[in-house]
Design brief:
Layout (H helix, E strand, L loop, with lengths): L5 E5 L8 H12 L3 E4 L6 H11 L3 E6 L4 H14 L6 E6 L3 H10 L1 E5 L5 H12 L3
Length: about 130
């Protein structure tokens, strides 16, 4: 039997739109993952604490506010400081290409833009979490 992956879906910052995050959370759950959704307006520290408490394999961040270059590095740093460097971080939102490259260099494993199919997202989570 394969391991059931635990995934935290979070909305850092002041962005109040969570429909996409909820759609992704449902798709991951339907694909057999255990999904924890933290809700809107989470600080990076709250996200790291939830990841630690929930013992997750991955964190999915949904950011539409434009604050990705501030918020994502703080989450990545917090995860490292908490000893969670093995937790995979995925980001969804409106991320310019140059920022996407910088975020990947910092440790984000995948970035999903608007219109990415849930199947593509689920497959990416499975691929990275299964070690492939």
């Amino acid at each position: 039997m394969s391991k059931q992956f635990r995934v935290l879906i979070a909305k850092p910052g002041l962005d109040g739109h969570d429909r996409g995050a909820k759609v992704v959370a449902r798709a991951l759950r339907d694909a057999g993952m255990e999904v924890i959704y933290t809700g809107l307006r989470q600080t990076p520290e709250m996200i790291v604490e939830a990841a630690l408490q929930e013992d997750v394999d991955a964190v999915g961040l949904s950011i539409l506010s434009g604050a990705h270059m501030t918020l994502v590095p703080r989450v990545l740093e917090g995860l490292r400081e908490a000893g969670l460097e093995d937790v995979k971080v995925f980001v969804g939102g409106i991320i310019p290409d140059e920022d996407a490259e910088a975020l990947k260099e910092m440790g984000v494993v995948e970035i999903f833009g608007p219109g990415t199919s849930t199947q593509t997202i689920v497959e990416a989570f499975h691929r990275h979490l299964a070690g492939g």
